[in-house]
């Protein structure tokens, strides 16, 4: 009986406790989101918490980074309290009901947030199929049902994100755009500050653009795979990204496959975090500049630039490499192949103290080749390449043209032609 009474007491008290914790969590999330970035702000109003549920309203303010102009969107939410967590169901305000009904006459979009007391949250967004036709202009928009899900755990330090969008078609009298089977998956693990690790996959089965009096363009089987990981026992990070495109069709002529690899290695974690924070500060200062103290903004930007320079010096001193180890693009006349890599050596403490410029000891190599027939087929391209061949920058090797370069001592050697480079930072 005692055990039963204890369970009953917990069951009675739990929804109230969960409701209290949920309100505190939501207020904390709102504060963290607003402090983490300047582009959009969350405001919560009239949070009315009851025993088994709650409701509140709010505003999302989105700022245009180019103009500083703000756009506000109202929302409302209903909260259901359980024994171990809550379910937040978001919807647009009632006054927008008629506009939403025009686009979604049968089923409405559904955005929910499920929280757990142990620090796990699941966000799900379901958008039903859309079919809109403007009889006057002949324009139409058809979109299949889409689904997105994000599971955030370990108190915000781990996230798994999935987006599924079967596709959409936009039609106008002079234009047709279609998107087919978009998929996105991302796993993120917080390392420190603004540095995250993880891997992601994005794929698009097809994209087509057709405009009147213009050659049609189509991509088939586009995929991007990326992974970011730690190196040197967590002191630095590296990343590998692979982008592939199976077929490109232009003006009814198809060719492929295409492949591009991008890598970076040896980025010092602390200096990389300092760099990203300084860049964010500069962006924030620029967005808050209208109507503010211009001298204060300028001072903030100068301080951020100083931090950026110090972070770049730190990154260079620890050594790094980045670039494209593999470039391959198919053309009707043969492939365009190449490699572009840049490195900076790790320096001793004495060498770091004597550093005056970030890129003084930067080295790199460039190697690109393309079919000669491609240059001859397109006069615009030929007009650009011909002077380079005459200057020796581009050399002909059989049925191909090639550019080879080497970067060292702030000078770029292109096929034996030395080009001094200005110092950076």
Automatic annotation (TrEMBL):
Record protein name field = DUF945 domain-containing protein
Q: Which InterPro entries match?
A: DUF945
Q: What are the top taxonomic ranks of the organism? A: Bacteria, Pseudomonadati, Pseudomonadota, Gammaproteobacteria, Pseudomonadales
């Amino acid at each position: 009986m005692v055990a039963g009474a204890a369970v009953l007491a917990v069951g009675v008290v739990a929804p109230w406790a969960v409701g209290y914790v949920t309100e505190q969590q939501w207020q904390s999330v709102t504060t963290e989101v607003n402090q983490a970035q300047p582009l959009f702000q969350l405001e919560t109003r009239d949070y009315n918490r009851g025993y088994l549920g709650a409701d509140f309203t709010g505003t999302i303010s989105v700022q245009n980074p180019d103009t500083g102009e703000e756009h506000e969107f109202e929302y409302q939410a209903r909260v259901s309290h359980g024994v171990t967590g809550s379910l937040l169901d978001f919807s647009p305000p009632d006054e927008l009901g008629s506009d939403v009904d025009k686009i979604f006459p049968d089923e409405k979009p559904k955005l929910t947030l499920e929280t757990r007391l142990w620090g796990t949250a699941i966000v799900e967004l379901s958008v039903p199929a859309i079919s809109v036709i403007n009889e006057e202009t002949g324009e139409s928009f058809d979109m299949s049902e889409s689904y997105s899900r994000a599971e955030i755990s370990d108190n915000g330090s781990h996230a798994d994100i999935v987006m599924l969008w079967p596709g959409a078609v936009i039609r106008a009298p002079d234009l047709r755009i279609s998107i087919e089977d978009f998929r996105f998956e991302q796993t993120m693990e917080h390392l420190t500050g603004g540095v995250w690790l993880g891997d992601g996959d994005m794929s698009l089965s097809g994209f087509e653009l057709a405009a009147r009096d213009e050659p049609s363009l189509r991509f088939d089987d586009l995929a991007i795979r990326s992974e970011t990981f730690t190196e040197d026992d967590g002191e630095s990070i590296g990343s590998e990204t692979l982008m592939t495109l199976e077929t490109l069709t232009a003006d009814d002529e198809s060719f492929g496959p295409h492949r591009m690899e991008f890598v970076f290695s040896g980025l010092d974690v602390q200096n990389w975090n300092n760099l990203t924070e300084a860049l964010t500060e500069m962006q924030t200062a620029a967005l808050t500049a209208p109507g503010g103290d211009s001298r204060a903004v300028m001072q903030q930007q100068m301080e951020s630039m100083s931090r950026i320079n110090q972070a770049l010096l730190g990154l260079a001193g620890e050594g790094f490499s980045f670039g494209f180890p593999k470039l391959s693009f198919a053309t009707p006349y043969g492939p365009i192949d190449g490699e572009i890599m840049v490195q900076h050596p790790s320096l001793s403490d004495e060498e770091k103290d004597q550093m005056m410029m970030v890129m003084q000891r930067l080295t790199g190599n460039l190697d690109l080749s393309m079919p000669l027939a491609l240059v001859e087929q397109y006069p615009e391209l030929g007009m650009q390449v011909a002077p380079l061949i005459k200057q020796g920058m581009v050399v002909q090797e059989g049925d191909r043209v090639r550019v080879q370069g080497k970067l060292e001592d702030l000078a770029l050697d292109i096929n034996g032609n030395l080009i001094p480079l200005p110092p950076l930072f």
